[in-house]
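re: that chain from earlier
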Amino acid sequence: MPPGAARRGKEQRVRVMPGMLEVADRERDELWELSLARDQQRKRQELDAERYRWHAGQAERLKRTMSELVEHHEAEARRLVEGEGGSAV
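^ sequence. v structure.
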């Protein structure tokens, strides 16, 4: 094939009746909206999973921190009651 020459295959001719383009446009728009809704749903699920992981991790971190803080205060209270830190309660 010489340079610049266009390849020609079987050409299909589509006969367009009045109103057909409107139907095709409407179907295309409906498919696009469905695709968009599916994509948005998938993104929401991904964000929900990410939020779940963050909150679950944060809960674990807080449990660890709080338990350490509780242990510290209990030890201080024992120390004060046993008379090691000044006047007893």
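The chain is about 70% helix and 0% strand.
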